From TrEMBL:
Matches recorded under PROSITE patterns: PDZ
Superkingdom classification of source: Eukaryota
PDZ domain span: 98-186
InterPro entries per UniProt: PDZ (IPR001478), PDZ_sf (IPR036034)
Transmembrane segments: none
Identification of the protein by name: PDZ domain-containing protein
Length: 192
């Protein structure tokens, strides 16, 4: 009973968009989810955003998860294939959670392994090792107050890192206190 309720409530925030033509989305696969990694200028997704610029809820944003294509769900590879088909009609996106932590290094290193898949990508946490984040996580009251593996760092100390990960890496290394904003996928795996 609880399970089906949890899955249903998870889909409430999904947004389904009708978009015609090649999307121009560069997808990334992370932790078994297909994510919007970047938008190409002049692709259908980018054009859709320019038309919908006043309506935040209808925008396609980096780190959105592709939940369905034409009403079908499946593995990332299948969803990517369906999204790229010329006859595709609709794409359903699931917004990530947006969270933030403030890390005071107190002379320690940050202790986070990060990676990004291309110069215009997004900084992704690959793991937390010994250091300031590990100590912060240990005393955090909830998962929402922790920085965890697969979180996608979007801003550090007010500097936007989406599409330019190298600009925030230097801040993460140098700053004594780091206010880190990040996206975390809402995982709704409905297989029992």
């Amino acid at each position: 009973g609880m399970h089906s309720l949890w899955c249903r409530s998870g889909r409430r925030g999904d947004v389904t968009l009708q978009i015609v033509g090649p999307l121009g989305i560069w997808f990334e696969v992370l932790d078994d989810a297909l994510l919007v990694g970047a938008l190409q200028e002049d692709g259908a997704a980018w054009r859709h955003n320019s038309v919908q610029h006043s309506c935040e809820a209808r925008q396609i944003r980096v780190n959105d998860q592709v939940a369905e294509v034409d009403g079908m769900r499946g593995e990332p590879a299948l969803l990517a294939y369906l999204a790229k088909r010329p006859e595709r009609k609709s794409i359903t996106l699931r917004r990530p959670q947006e969270l933030a932590v403030s890390i005071d290094k107190r002379g320690m290193r940050l202790g986070v392994d990060v990676s990004w898949s291309r110069p215009s990508g997004v900084l992704t946490v690959q793991g937390v090792v010994e250091g300031a984040v590990f100590e912060h996580n240990r005393s955090a009251r909830s998962k929402e107050e922790q920085l965890q593996k697969h979180d996608r760092i979007i801003e550090v100390n007010g500097v936007n890192g989406v599409g330019r990960p190298d600009s925030v890496v230097s801040i993460l290394e140098a700053a004594e206190t780091c206010v880190i904003k990040f996206h975390r996928q809402k995982v709704h795996k409905c297989e029992l």
